[in-house]
Design brief:
single chain; 241 residues; alpha/beta; TIM Barrel; 8-stranded mixed β-barrel; 7 helices; secreted; bacteriolytic enzyme
Protein backbone atom coordinates (compact mmCIF):
# COMPACT_ATOMS: atom_id res chain seq x y z
CA UNK A 1 0.00 0.00 0.00
CA UNK A 2 1.24 3.47 -0.86
CA UNK A 3 1.21 6.35 1.54
CA UNK A 4 -1.56 8.92 1.42
CA UNK A 5 -0.05 12.22 0.37
CA UNK A 6 -3.20 14.32 0.27
CA UNK A 7 -5.36 15.05 3.29
CA UNK A 8 -8.32 16.12 1.21
CA UNK A 9 -11.27 13.74 1.44
CA UNK A 10 -12.28 11.83 -1.66
CA UNK A 11 -15.51 13.26 -3.03
CA UNK A 12 -16.62 12.22 -6.51
CA UNK A 13 -14.58 13.31 -9.49
CA UNK A 14 -16.42 12.79 -12.78
CA UNK A 15 -14.48 11.41 -15.72
CA UNK A 16 -12.85 14.18 -17.74
CA UNK A 17 -13.66 16.97 -15.29
CA UNK A 18 -9.98 17.62 -14.58
CA UNK A 19 -9.06 17.40 -18.27
CA UNK A 20 -11.67 20.05 -19.08
CA UNK A 21 -10.37 22.16 -16.20
CA UNK A 22 -6.74 22.01 -17.38
CA UNK A 23 -7.07 21.69 -21.14
CA UNK A 24 -10.35 23.45 -21.94
CA UNK A 25 -12.70 22.54 -24.76
CA UNK A 26 -16.44 22.06 -24.99
CA UNK A 27 -17.13 25.47 -26.41
CA UNK A 28 -20.61 25.49 -27.89
CA UNK A 29 -21.79 24.18 -30.24
CA UNK A 30 -20.92 20.59 -29.41
CA UNK A 31 -18.24 19.43 -31.85
CA UNK A 32 -19.23 16.84 -34.40
CA UNK A 33 -16.60 14.09 -34.44
CA UNK A 34 -14.76 13.85 -37.74
CA UNK A 35 -15.28 10.11 -38.10
CA UNK A 36 -17.26 7.82 -40.39
CA UNK A 37 -20.65 7.37 -38.69
CA UNK A 38 -21.13 4.01 -40.42
CA UNK A 39 -18.02 2.61 -38.74
CA UNK A 40 -18.56 4.00 -35.24
CA UNK A 41 -20.92 3.49 -32.31
CA UNK A 42 -22.30 6.28 -30.10
CA UNK A 43 -21.94 6.02 -26.34
CA UNK A 44 -21.84 7.95 -23.08
CA UNK A 45 -20.43 7.85 -19.57
CA UNK A 46 -21.97 8.81 -16.24
CA UNK A 47 -21.16 9.21 -12.56
CA UNK A 48 -23.18 10.08 -9.46
CA UNK A 49 -23.46 13.63 -10.81
CA UNK A 50 -26.11 12.37 -13.26
CA UNK A 51 -28.18 10.70 -10.51
CA UNK A 52 -30.89 8.38 -11.78
CA UNK A 53 -30.44 8.32 -15.57
CA UNK A 54 -33.33 8.10 -18.05
CA UNK A 55 -31.73 5.32 -20.08
CA UNK A 56 -34.64 4.90 -22.48
CA UNK A 57 -34.31 8.54 -23.51
CA UNK A 58 -30.61 8.15 -24.25
CA UNK A 59 -31.22 4.89 -26.10
CA UNK A 60 -33.77 6.73 -28.23
CA UNK A 61 -31.07 9.31 -29.02
CA UNK A 62 -28.82 6.59 -30.42
CA UNK A 63 -26.59 5.71 -27.48
CA UNK A 64 -25.56 2.05 -27.65
CA UNK A 65 -22.89 1.76 -24.97
CA UNK A 66 -22.22 3.33 -21.58
CA UNK A 67 -19.48 3.45 -18.98
CA UNK A 68 -20.55 4.00 -15.36
CA UNK A 69 -18.31 5.22 -12.56
CA UNK A 70 -18.00 2.56 -9.88
CA UNK A 71 -15.20 3.70 -7.58
CA UNK A 72 -12.54 6.29 -6.79
CA UNK A 73 -9.40 5.48 -4.81
CA UNK A 74 -10.28 2.87 -2.19
CA UNK A 75 -12.86 4.90 -0.31
CA UNK A 76 -15.60 5.95 -2.72
CA UNK A 77 -18.44 4.01 -4.34
CA UNK A 78 -20.97 5.62 -6.68
CA UNK A 79 -24.32 5.49 -4.83
CA UNK A 80 -26.19 5.47 -8.16
CA UNK A 81 -24.09 2.65 -9.60
CA UNK A 82 -26.81 -0.03 -9.60
CA UNK A 83 -29.40 2.20 -11.30
CA UNK A 84 -26.89 3.33 -13.90
CA UNK A 85 -25.08 0.04 -14.56
CA UNK A 86 -28.18 -2.17 -14.57
CA UNK A 87 -30.39 0.45 -16.21
CA UNK A 88 -28.11 0.84 -19.21
CA UNK A 89 -27.93 -2.95 -19.57
CA UNK A 90 -31.68 -3.38 -19.26
CA UNK A 91 -32.40 -0.88 -22.04
CA UNK A 92 -30.08 -2.78 -24.37
CA UNK A 93 -26.76 -0.99 -24.10
CA UNK A 94 -23.39 -2.70 -23.81
CA UNK A 95 -22.00 -1.28 -20.59
CA UNK A 96 -18.88 -1.24 -18.44
CA UNK A 97 -17.61 0.31 -15.21
CA UNK A 98 -14.77 2.75 -14.62
CA UNK A 99 -12.46 3.60 -11.74
CA UNK A 100 -11.05 7.08 -11.02
CA UNK A 101 -7.44 6.48 -10.02
CA UNK A 102 -5.81 8.23 -7.06
CA UNK A 103 -2.26 6.89 -7.35
CA UNK A 104 -0.98 8.77 -4.29
CA UNK A 105 -3.49 7.16 -1.92
CA UNK A 106 -2.79 3.42 -2.30
CA UNK A 107 -1.21 0.89 -4.63
CA UNK A 108 -2.46 0.04 -8.10
CA UNK A 109 -3.25 -3.49 -6.91
CA UNK A 110 -5.28 -2.21 -3.96
CA UNK A 111 -7.36 0.06 -6.19
CA UNK A 112 -7.85 -2.63 -8.85
CA UNK A 113 -9.13 -5.05 -6.21
CA UNK A 114 -11.41 -2.39 -4.72
CA UNK A 115 -12.77 -1.67 -8.21
CA UNK A 116 -13.44 -5.34 -9.02
CA UNK A 117 -15.01 -5.90 -5.61
CA UNK A 118 -17.38 -2.95 -6.06
CA UNK A 119 -18.84 -3.30 -9.54
CA UNK A 120 -15.80 -3.23 -11.81
CA UNK A 121 -15.67 -6.90 -12.72
CA UNK A 122 -16.26 -8.48 -16.11
CA UNK A 123 -18.38 -11.34 -17.37
CA UNK A 124 -18.56 -12.81 -20.85
CA UNK A 125 -22.27 -12.12 -21.37
CA UNK A 126 -21.84 -10.10 -24.55
CA UNK A 127 -23.10 -6.94 -22.84
CA UNK A 128 -20.24 -6.10 -20.46
CA UNK A 129 -17.15 -4.12 -21.46
CA UNK A 130 -13.83 -4.53 -19.67
CA UNK A 131 -13.38 -2.11 -16.80
CA UNK A 132 -11.77 1.26 -17.51
CA UNK A 133 -9.02 2.99 -15.56
CA UNK A 134 -9.46 6.77 -15.50
CA UNK A 135 -6.01 8.41 -15.40
CA UNK A 136 -6.14 12.20 -15.38
CA UNK A 137 -5.10 15.33 -13.51
CA UNK A 138 -5.20 15.09 -9.73
CA UNK A 139 -8.32 16.87 -8.41
CA UNK A 140 -6.78 17.12 -4.92
CA UNK A 141 -3.16 18.10 -5.53
CA UNK A 142 -0.18 17.96 -7.89
CA UNK A 143 -0.80 17.01 -11.52
CA UNK A 144 1.12 13.71 -11.41
CA UNK A 145 0.16 12.79 -7.84
CA UNK A 146 3.74 13.34 -6.64
CA UNK A 147 5.07 10.50 -8.79
CA UNK A 148 7.85 10.38 -11.34
CA UNK A 149 6.98 9.09 -14.80
CA UNK A 150 8.50 5.70 -14.04
CA UNK A 151 6.66 5.48 -10.71
CA UNK A 152 3.39 6.30 -12.44
CA UNK A 153 4.06 3.67 -15.10
CA UNK A 154 4.68 1.11 -12.35
CA UNK A 155 1.44 2.10 -10.59
CA UNK A 156 -0.61 1.71 -13.77
CA UNK A 157 1.05 -1.64 -14.50
CA UNK A 158 0.22 -2.79 -10.96
CA UNK A 159 -3.42 -1.86 -11.47
CA UNK A 160 -3.58 -3.34 -14.96
CA UNK A 161 -1.88 -6.63 -14.03
CA UNK A 162 -4.09 -7.05 -10.96
CA UNK A 163 -7.25 -6.34 -12.95
CA UNK A 164 -6.13 -8.85 -15.57
CA UNK A 165 -5.44 -11.51 -12.96
CA UNK A 166 -8.89 -10.98 -11.42
CA UNK A 167 -10.95 -10.79 -14.63
CA UNK A 168 -8.91 -12.16 -17.51
CA UNK A 169 -9.20 -8.80 -19.29
CA UNK A 170 -6.88 -5.83 -19.62
CA UNK A 171 -8.56 -2.60 -18.49
CA UNK A 172 -9.28 0.12 -20.99
CA UNK A 173 -7.15 3.17 -20.14
CA UNK A 174 -8.89 6.56 -20.23
CA UNK A 175 -6.61 9.59 -20.38
CA UNK A 176 -5.67 12.71 -22.31
CA UNK A 177 -2.54 12.95 -24.43
CA UNK A 178 -1.32 16.01 -22.53
CA UNK A 179 -1.67 14.46 -19.07
CA UNK A 180 -0.21 11.12 -20.12
CA UNK A 181 2.83 12.63 -21.78
CA UNK A 182 3.50 14.73 -18.67
CA UNK A 183 3.14 11.93 -16.14
CA UNK A 184 3.80 8.50 -17.71
CA UNK A 185 6.75 7.03 -19.60
CA UNK A 186 5.54 3.45 -20.14
CA UNK A 187 3.99 1.75 -23.15
CA UNK A 188 0.61 0.05 -22.67
CA UNK A 189 -0.38 0.06 -26.33
CA UNK A 190 0.07 -3.69 -26.86
CA UNK A 191 -2.31 -4.69 -24.05
CA UNK A 192 -4.70 -1.91 -23.04
CA UNK A 193 -7.31 -0.34 -25.35
CA UNK A 194 -7.11 3.47 -25.40
CA UNK A 195 -10.00 5.72 -24.45
CA UNK A 196 -8.79 9.24 -25.23
CA UNK A 197 -10.35 12.52 -24.13
CA UNK A 198 -10.22 15.48 -26.47
CA UNK A 199 -13.03 18.02 -26.71
CA UNK A 200 -12.66 18.99 -30.34
CA UNK A 201 -13.81 17.93 -33.79
CA UNK A 202 -10.75 15.72 -34.31
CA UNK A 203 -9.07 13.33 -31.92
CA UNK A 204 -5.59 14.75 -32.49
CA UNK A 205 -2.29 13.24 -31.34
CA UNK A 206 -2.57 10.09 -29.26
CA UNK A 207 -0.64 9.34 -26.06
CA UNK A 208 2.75 7.64 -26.29
CA UNK A 209 2.93 4.72 -28.71
CA UNK A 210 -0.80 4.11 -29.15
CA UNK A 211 -1.37 3.94 -32.88
CA UNK A 212 -5.15 3.73 -32.67
CA UNK A 213 -7.88 4.86 -30.32
CA UNK A 214 -10.70 2.55 -29.26
CA UNK A 215 -13.02 5.14 -27.65
CA UNK A 216 -12.95 8.93 -27.97
CA UNK A 217 -14.68 11.19 -25.44
CA UNK A 218 -15.33 14.29 -27.53
CA UNK A 219 -17.71 16.40 -25.45
CA UNK A 220 -19.27 16.77 -22.01
CA UNK A 221 -22.24 18.83 -23.17
CA UNK A 222 -24.96 18.10 -22.13
CA UNK A 223 -23.43 14.80 -20.97
CA UNK A 224 -20.15 12.98 -21.59
CA UNK A 225 -20.44 11.58 -25.12
CA UNK A 226 -18.15 9.03 -26.70
CA UNK A 227 -17.49 7.43 -30.05
CA UNK A 228 -16.37 3.82 -30.40
CA UNK A 229 -13.88 3.32 -33.23
CA UNK A 230 -15.53 0.51 -35.18
CA UNK A 231 -18.85 -0.93 -36.21
CA UNK A 232 -21.22 -2.49 -33.68
CA UNK A 233 -19.81 -5.99 -34.16
CA UNK A 234 -16.39 -4.71 -33.08
CA UNK A 235 -17.91 -3.25 -29.92
CA UNK A 236 -19.45 -6.65 -29.27
CA UNK A 237 -16.03 -8.22 -29.82
CA UNK A 238 -14.51 -5.91 -27.20
CA UNK A 239 -17.23 -6.96 -24.78
CA UNK A 240 -16.70 -10.66 -25.46
CA UNK A 241 -12.94 -10.55 -25.21
Amino acid sequence: MGTQTSSEPVTDTPMGSQIRKHEGGDELPVPVPAVDPLATVAGMDVSSHQGNVDWQSWWNQGMRFAYVKATEGTGYENPYFAQQYNGSYNVGMIRGAYHFALPDRSSGAAQANYFVDNGGGWSKDGKTLPGALDMEYNPYGSTCYGKTKSQMTAWIKDFSDTYHSRTGRWPVIYTSTSWWNQCVDGDFSSTNPLWVARYASTVGQLPYNWGIWTIWQYTSSPIDKNTFNGAYDRLQALANG
